[in-house]
Design brief:
Two copies of one chain form a homodimer. Chain A has 16 helices and 20 strands. By secondary structure, chain A is of the alpha/beta class. Chain A has three domains: 130 residues, NAD(P)-binding Rossmann-like Domain (Rossmann fold); 145 residues, Succinyl-CoA synthetase domains (Rossmann fold), CATH 3.40.50; 149 residues, Rossmann fold. In chain A, the strands form four sheets. Chain A has a seven-stranded mixed beta sheet, sandwiched between helices. In chain A, a hairpin with a 3-residue loop joins strand 16 and strand 17. In chain A, helix 6 runs parallel beside helix 7, helix 10 crosses helix 16 and helix 13 runs parallel beside helix 14. Chain A is elongated. Chain A starts with a helix and ends in a 7-residue tail after the last helix. The mean pLDDT of chain A is 92. At the A-B interface, helix 5, helix 8, helix 10, helix 11 and helix 16 of A face helix 5, helix 8, helix 10, helix 11 and helix 16 of B.
Amino acid sequence: MATMETLDLLFKPRSIAVIGAAHTPEKLGGTILKNLLKYKGRVYPVNPKYDELMGMKTYPSLSDIPEPVDLSLIARPASEVPEILREHRGRARFAVIISSGFAETGHENLQDEIKKIGNEAGVRMIGPNCMGVYNPYNRLDTFFLPPDRVRRPKRGNVAVVSQSGAFLHCLFGVMVVANIGISRAVTYGNAVDIDESDLYEYLADNPETDVVISYIESVRDGRRFIEKARLLDKKKPLLVLKSGKGSSGQAAAYSHTGRLAGRYEVFSSVLGQFGIREMKDFDEMTDCMKALSYQRPSRGKKILIITNGGGSGVLASDECMRQGFEVRRLSDEKMRRMKEIFPDFYVLNNPVDLTAQVEDAQYVTVLKELKDEYDGFLIVALTGVRGITENLAGMLRDFMAEVGKPIVFHTSCGCESGRLVNLVEKAGIPVYLSPERAVKGLKALLRPQFAG
Amino acid sequence: MATMETLDLLFKPRSIAVIGAAHTPEKLGGTILKNLLKYKGRVYPVNPKYDELMGMKTYPSLSDIPEPVDLSLIARPASEVPEILREHRGRARFAVIISSGFAETGHENLQDEIKKIGNEAGVRMIGPNCMGVYNPYNRLDTFFLPPDRVRRPKRGNVAVVSQSGAFLHCLFGVMVVANIGISRAVTYGNAVDIDESDLYEYLADNPETDVVISYIESVRDGRRFIEKARLLDKKKPLLVLKSGKGSSGQAAAYSHTGRLAGRYEVFSSVLGQFGIREMKDFDEMTDCMKALSYQRPSRGKKILIITNGGGSGVLASDECMRQGFEVRRLSDEKMRRMKEIFPDFYVLNNPVDLTAQVEDAQYVTVLKELKDEYDGFLIVALTGVRGITENLAGMLRDFMAEVGKPIVFHTSCGCESGRLVNLVEKAGIPVYLSPERAVKGLKALLRPQFAG
């Protein structure tokens, strides 16, 4: 078992060997080396054909490097990996095996072989068939994705544990666009050694991480998985997306990481039993991630919707119902109070409809009046009318600091709303481009069973 | 009943009166007038306080305009609307009543009154509590949304029939971003006269419309609704989003348009019985709209997934299963053939995984080999690797012209993929930013019960 201490070294290696380093970013081994140029630790390219790569002294093999390294990255064809791993004994603590062509393409024997060799050499392995590790706090980046093609998210509080590189790649895209920061990322592929359970244990105590995203195709040891998932989820929210659900998905998962996906229904019901959040698909995952990276979860189910578009309020109410929320009408006393404040044609119910005649300060007037009667708030501010201005962002930020309950925001998409979206998110409020997705974000923040 | 001929005049009026026209776009009546400055027909501002507005001669009342008009727009407080409508006898064929403050705020009597007055005056009414009509083919635009805040979509083939202005506002945002064109749009609010059924009948024969989007909170005459919906859906796809589903949603819908939403389950089951597509939420609506605006629907359920990211393929397979599609593995013969063509580490199953080593031309190689064995195709091309280039768009366009079956495309989000997304959509292939949404788009294009 990896302990927190040892895994910390995986994310903070003092020295890294790049086996299969190349001279050009046109090759994977070149992209990886280039991404490590800005790394603060010592980096040793390994390639017998070169004396120097990208200005760095290059070594024929791992054994020729002047010191044992904390981390080696292996980007050579699958057939060479056994021999390379044998050299690791006493020369490397961790190895990320990026190479593919193991169980996922039917070469189970080769995979068994590297597992055995790695274990005998005393090296902890990530992969094979993976992209490795990412830590923006020290610029560790073993991903073979060129940064001009896949921008890295800013530093932040979301950790990503993904069996798939593609999932992480797509998630990075969403994080950059949605202004979500990352604390750690790992893709672990076929998982011959270190797997999600080890990483959960590490992340539970990682102070930079507040939320953990986990994309899983298969789990080797179900009991251990549940144990570590519960341990983690007690400390910070864990969001699990399990793929390979049906027969075709399972076949695809096996072809992808060479591990059997197992019976999905059993997996899902066990997650539910322990109150661990299971995400239905990629979009639900990103919606919930966004909410939890911006705000801390709390309890309750009474939602107040304030809108300037009636139809958006109705769609949000429908989604609240589907998610088990209550959209209770205003109390008679509050209704009377609101009628004193607002014009006759405003719809003073729940949703409160401020109509196209809205002025931005009215959202906060309503929020202040009703803050004690509801557990969470959905603000719908469609930017098509002149009463919605960028000042709304600051007003909501001030209100949120005062009330300490979850608030999410929905606005229409399009360039016109871009600046407002940015300001509202800077104010710590997640923005969604449909009413239903906003409610799903709120759902991530309000759980009856979560102690907050 | 409105016939197609009469409703054609609503979208192509020779003359328009703007009752409540204002001198500044800061007011709704000013925005409307400004948006009509570029209209090709005759426009008459009506406002007793001005002789001239925005350079146009202005009239004290409808009766003072030198000719009867085809269309009047009423943007005055609710209390004035009865008197204004009385003046319509013989002076206007259609009236769009933009004013709110009728049944949706509890003033049912006032609404009954205007309905009676309008009928007696022989004027066909849209609204009240609505934004009216939009026809990009002649620049008719009665919406009070300033174009600098809500950009209008380009001309195209999607008609929008929406009870809610907010829904339309949000949909316009999506259409602009997703490069989807519009043929007609109407928001009809409380629907005292012209409703969705009338509009379906008109759109069934409208040559500029290939797809109809309908957002409904309540239906007055269920039997007539179903009759017209079926008539329309036989000619072109109708996508219905019914809101006001649960008790809170129904209360919200009543507060919004002053009409009872009715029992949702009955509505939904009748739609299903007649094979009319019901959308679950705003996002499903926009995903399906996009697919159907780009390609014509056909039949079948066998899907081929070609990806360069394994995890994305697994998530897509899972969604295919949920949507009732089949993701059959390749026949033995085709498998052999593919193994001759591609490297050993490619996963030649379904999904076909071209891995991070992909070259763009390989997608078309696979498509050409397997085109006869599948009914629809999902291309996943994550742009993080150098083998994906903008040339892929042209290759797919050529293949599509040759094969005539639905193709959808998924790529990661982020600026890096922006240009490729644009080119692929210009090539007539809808792009989605998650694997699951791409499959939902494909679902809109492949129906067992749709004759194509």
